[in-house]
Design goal:
two-component regulatory system, transferase, two-stranded antiparallel sheet, single chain, five-stranded mixed β-sheet, EC 2.7.13.3
Length: 362
């Protein structure tokens, strides 16, 4: 028999009507017509009451539960999010808790699957990036051992190339350690008040030769004040500024390159901008440039050097400072990287919490 509110109502209504009629038949002098009327009334009332109760309290909620399970299988969480407000219906409350639990578990499984893919891609990227400098250094060393060591000129040239490959490998390992320390909280910020403009001027001096070779001019915007005081980790913000300025210099293709740094107070904070007139970044790549090992154009990035970790470190350092980096770019016109720094003392932010929030928004 098909199990629904009507069939349950019919069965229970019939049982109640029969039991009621049998009890009434024990009353002396009761007529058959009275028994038939009692049978009909008790059956009708019992049927309507049982059917309504089962329909609204049980079967309707069971139907919603199956609907939610179907949506969960299709990774659709809209029905869960639509359920707001409280109810006094115990079955509905139980149904709501079950659906919320199922939704949370489904999302957890989805997150684990996404993280599994991320780890797999990350290991593949690390293996690929480590393989290149190791194989290069290995090739140079074996060539020297096979006889090139006897020629002083060739030996010196090959040793320089091997040293360059090993330096790149060392730099990559240090960058990976920096990211790991920032994520785990092992690398604590040393927050102090200092002049950010003075720090950028020092970076300009260090990168002057590199900029001259690329015919790039380094300077400040006109609205930058003579003194810009911020609360931050001086060494790590120096790393951020150096990375952004080096990238701006590196990806230039004209004889009138310009890298301009703007330091402007806005809403009680310092808005930092690094603007260039270089290659620019395609729109589809802007959202991914802060991922580890990601390059806009891998072939061109290889020729420019680097390992795709610089902007990932920038992201982590800024997240530890409670801020983030924004990017505006147009292909062929240049790019602008911007972020805010505090003018008041602050506590270090939890980088891992920020990363979890980002993953949930992906």
């Amino acid at each position: 028999m098909f199990f629904n509110s009507r069939s349950v109502g019919l069965v229970l209504g019939a049982i109640i009507a029969v039991v009621t009629t049998l009890f009434l038949s024990l009353v002396p002098g009761i007529s058959d017509i009275a028994l038939l009327v009692a049978l009909g009334i008790s059956f009708s009332c019992s049927y309507l009451l049982v059917m309504s109760t089962m329909e609204f309290l049980v079967f309707r909620e069971l139907g919603k539960m199956y609907e939610v399970l179907d949506k969960l299988h299709a990774d659709d969480f809209s029905l869960i999010e639509e359920q707001v407000g409280e109810s006094t219906n115990p079955i509905k409350l139980a149904n709501k808790k079950i659906m919320s639990y199922a939704s949370a578990k489904r999302k957890e499984i989805a997150d684990l699957k996404r993280m599994e893919v991320y780890r797999r891609e990350f290991l593949a990227d690390v293996s690929h990036e480590l393989k290149t400098p190791i194989f290069a250094a290995q090739g140079f060393v074996h060539t020297l051992l096979d006889g090139a060591l006897e020629d002083e000129v060739i030996a010196k040239r090959f040793l320089k190339k091997a040293a360059k490959s090993l330096d790149g490998l060392d730099n990559m390992v240090h960058n990976l350690l920096s990211i790991s320390q920032l994520e785990s909280g092992d690398a604590k910020l040393v927050v102090e008040r200092y002049d950010l403009r003075e720090q950028v001027e020092e970076i300009f001096d260090q990168l002057e030769n590199k900029a001259d070779k690329k015919y790039v001019s380094l300077g400040f915007s006109e609205d930058t004040a003579p003194e810009v005081l911020v609360y931050a980790d001086r060494r790590r913000i120096g790393h951020v500024m150096t990375n952004l300025i080096v990238n701006a210099i590196k990806y230039q293709d004209n004889k009138a390159g310009l890298v301009e740094v703007s330091l402007k107070e806005e809403d009680g904070k310092i808005l930092v901008k690094v603007t260039d007139n270089g290659f620019g970044i395609p729109e589809e790549d802007v959202k991914r440039i802060f991922e580890r090992f990601y390059r806009v154009e891998k072939s061109r990035a290889k020729s420019k050097g680097g390992n795709g970790l610089g902007l990932a470190i920038v992201r982590h350092i800024l997240q530890a400072h409670g801020t983030q980096c924004f990017v505006k770019s147009s292909v062929g016109l240049g790019s602008t990287f911007s972020f805010y720094l505090s003018t008041e003392y602050f506590e270090e932010h939890d980088v891992q919490t920020e990363l979890d929030k980002e993953e949930q928004n992906i």
